[in-house]
DNA sequence: AAGCTATTGAGAATAGGTCTCAAGTGCAAG
DNA sequence: CTTGCACTTGAGACCTATTCTCAATAGCTT
C-alpha cells in the first residue's frame, strides 16, 4: 500500500477533526501519526505504547478518547476477533469493503476483497428494506493448505509435523 | 422454526455433554431448556434471569460456565453487536450459515441466508489456502425503506417523521 | 447405598475501559 | 505577539462484565 494513501487517510482525519472543531494537540498528532503509519491491526494498549515512542506524554485516557473519534470518522474500524480486548483496523480508508479470514490455530489473518460478495450484500440489503452503511465478513478456518505447501510460516501451523 | 428442530439441537447438546463426560445437573438442564426454547439473541444476564424462572438455584457463575460449553458445541454463537456485553445466538444449529443485518438507528436485527455468498466464501477461502470452519457476516444499515413503507414498527424509525 | 469427582453458589478478584477534576494548551480574535 | 477561554490532558479513582476460589453439594457408576 503506497505511503501516499496513508497520508491521504491522515489528512482526512485531520479534516474530520477540524469539521468537529476539535484541536490537533501534540498527543493527538502522535496517535494519528502512529495509526496512519501502520497496516497492522492493533489493540488500545499497543496504540498507547507505539504512540508513546513518538510522544512520551500520551496517556492511556487520551488513547481511549481518540479511538472513538477514529472509528466515528470511518477511517478505522473496531474488530472483534474473539479475544477479550478489541482490535482496530486502520485499512478501511483505502479498502472500505475488505474482509478477514482468520486461522483458528495460528491466528494468522489475511485480508481480501470481493466485489461479487459486496454486490450480493447490496442486493440482499435492499431486498430486506435496508440501506447499507457498512459490512463486515469474517471467516474462520485453518491454513492447512498453506501448511501442506510449506508456505505458512506461523509456528502452530508446523507444530504437528 | 419447528419446535422439533430446537428439541433436536437440545439433544445434540446433551450428547455433547455426555461425550465430554460432563454431568447433566438440574442447573444445566434449566439453562439448556432456556437456550433451546428461544430464537432470540440473548445476553449472559438475560440467560441468568430466564433460567432462574425454571430453577431458582441457577447462579451467575454457572451461566458463565455453561456459555463456553454451548459455543464450543457449535450450537450457539457468540456475537458482537458493538455493545459492551456479548450476545448469544441460539439459531446456528438450524442455520449454520445465517447472517445478520442490523439497523443503526433502532437496533432491529434481521437474519438472512445466502447460498451464493456462502459459495463465494468457500471459493475465496480455498484460493487463499484455508479450509473454512465458520463465517460471520454482519451488515449495518438503516431500515429507511421499511420506514417509508410504514412497515417498521421500531420507535426510532418513526422519531423524525 | 457408597464413594468418587464433577459441579455448584457466593462473593472476592480481575481487567478492559470510562470518568472526574484540576492543571495545561491550541488557536482565534484583537 | 498577547490574551482568554473552551477544549484537552494525565493520573488515578471508578465501573462493570466476566472469571476465579473454595468449601459444600450432588450426579452417576458400581
Describe this protein's structure:
The structure is a homodimer of 161-residue chains. In chain A, strands 4-3-5 form a three-stranded mixed beta sheet. In chain A, strands 1-2 form a two-stranded antiparallel sheet. In chain A, strand 3 (99-103) and strand 4 (109-112) form a beta hairpin. The first copy, chain A, is of the alpha+beta class. Chain A has two domains: 3-89, Winged helix-like DNA-binding domain superfamily/Winged helix DNA-binding domain (Arc Repressor Mutant, subunit A, Orthogonal Bundle); 99-158, Ferric-uptake regulator, C-terminal dimerisarion domain (Dna Ligase, domain 1). Chain A contains six helices and five strands; from the N terminus they run H-H-H-H-E-E-E-E-H-E-H. Chains A and B meet through helix 5, strand 5 and helix 6 of A and helix 5, strand 5 and helix 6 of B. Strand 5 of chain A pairs antiparallel with strand 5 of chain B, so a sheet runs across the interface. The first copy, chain A, binds a DNA duplex (30 and 30 nucleotides) through residues 21-28, 44-45, 57-62, 64-65, 84-86.
Shape of chain A: globular
Order of helices and strands of chain A: HHHHEEEEHEH
Structural class of chain A: alpha+beta
How are the strands ordered across the major sheet of chain A? Answer: 4-3-5
What CATH architecture of the largest domain in chain A do you see? Orthogonal Bundle
Amino acid at each position: 500500500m503506497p505511503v501516499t494513501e496513508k497520508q491521504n487517510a491522515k489528512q482526512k482525519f485531520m479534516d474530520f477533526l477540524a469539521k468537529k472543531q476539535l484541536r490537533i494537540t501534540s498527543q493527538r498528532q502522535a496517535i494519528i501519526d502512529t495509526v496512519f503509519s501502520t497496516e497492522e491491526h492493533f489493540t488500545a494498549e499497543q496504540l498507547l505504547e507505539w504512540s508513546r515512542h513518538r510522544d512520551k506524554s500520551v496517556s492511556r485516557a487520551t488513547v481511549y478518547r481518540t479511538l472513538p473519534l477514529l472509528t466515528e470518522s470511518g477511517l478505522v474500524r473496531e474488530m472483534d476477533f474473539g479475544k477479550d480486548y478489541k482490535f482496530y483496523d486502520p485499512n478501511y480508508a483505502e479498502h472500505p469493503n475488505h474482509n478477514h479470514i482468520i486461522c483458528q490455530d495460528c491466528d494468522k489473518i489475511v485480508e481480501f476483497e470481493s466485489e461479487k460478495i459486496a454486490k450480493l450484500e447490496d442486493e440482499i440489503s435492499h431486498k430486506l428494506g435496508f440501506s447499507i452503511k457498512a459490512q463486515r465478513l469474517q471467516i474462520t478456518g485453518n491454513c492447512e493448505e498453506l501448511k501442506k505447501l510449506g508456505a505458512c510460516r506461523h509456528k502452530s501451523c508446523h507444530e504437528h509435523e
